[in-house]
Amino acid sequence: MHITDIPPGLSARVPVEQRGPGLGRDSVRLLVSQGSAEVSLHAFRELPGLLRAGDVLVVNTSTTLAAAVDGRLGREEVVVHFSTRGDDGRWAVELREPAGGGTTRRRAGGPAGGLVELPGGQRLVLEEPLAAGADRLWWARPSAEVPPLLRTYGRPIRYAYTERDQPLSAYQTVFAVPAADGSGSAEMPSAGRPFTAELVARLVSRGVRFAPLTLHTGVASQEAHEPPYPERYAVPATTAALVRAARAGGGRVIAVGTTAVRALESAADARGVVRAAGGWTDLVVTPERGVRVVDGLLTGLHEPEASHLLMLEAVAGRAAVRLGYAHALAQLCLWHEFGDVHLLLKDDNRHGKHC
Predict the structure, then answer these.
(1) CB 29, CB 44: distance < 8 Å
(2) What secondary structure letter does DSSP report for 226?
(3) Other CB atoms closer than 10 Å to residue 95's CB: what's the count?
(4) CB 337 within 8 A of CB 12
(5) For residue 221, what pLDDT band results from cuts at 50, 70 and 90?
(6) Reduced to 3 states, what is the DSSP secondary structure of residue 190?
(7) What residues pair up with 235 in beta bridges, in sequence order?
(8) pTM of full prediction above 0.90
(9) End-to-end CA separation in angstroms for the chain
(10) For residues 263 and 213, is the Cβ–Cβ distance under 8 A?
(11) H-type helices in the chain, by residue range?
(12) 113, 268, 320, 353: which is deepest, by most CB within 10 A?
């Protein structure tokens, strides 16, 4: 599917609450797509009126890490983006070149055996690419535990379309729960960012339920749209039960973010029955695979050719995604993690493979 390139002026450069007096996180706009012929634009704070009692919002509780740390590889200055902790103590990392103004640009990965000097006397040894044929992310072995390093010397990962550095709090959602072992996401599960405590209370009073799960997101790529790498997730038994009850009672299961879709669909069997599950998931949701559990998806606006667009098609259909994005461009909606959001609801009359 082709989506027109996004004009540079439509990148959200700062959080919405910094764009004017009286604005809060829920001041972003909400595009709603249902079926291939219906699309509308709302304020995000109108969400309770757009959902029904019995609907379940599945949210990601992963906290965002200060995952960018300055380092030196020989004579070269680098910025290390810590992506994912492996079971053997290694970390998947991306090395970037400083680009000035607090931003970075892509560099070649490696080399194998390269020694990255980090603050506080710590070191990182580059060992091998994360996946065969991929050079951007590498497995690296740290000389000490990484979470304390990030807490002391790290900062949030920032891309060039943003205007300035933001505190880590700007990248945390209202659903974030710090993990005891310091695990978290390299980049914010940003679909949950527009929610506030007040809005959550209004949704609960509406009869909408919240079902938490965890998926720790790795480093995305703004330059090379690659399929997602394996990520660690956990779907608790209580969430699985809430989802099963919603489906049995006619409620809709709406994932808040592509991360929630990936985790929830990973915990479902071929009949769409969700059980408690956890570990690593390499699931890539495509229209061919379809979705077995999710009836809707609340997500940000994704760039052309991003692999996440295939997931949107799997939920709502290609025609609905194309129409929604055309509307987003016409209405000058804002892209990226501080931008506007898109609610896609499954067209139950659409003929397609979903199980």
Answers:
(1) yes
(2) P
(3) 25
(4) yes
(5) low
(6) helix
(7) 277
(8) yes
(9) 22
(10) yes
(11) 47-50, 146-153, 197-206, 237-249, 258-266, 308-316, 318-330
(12) 320
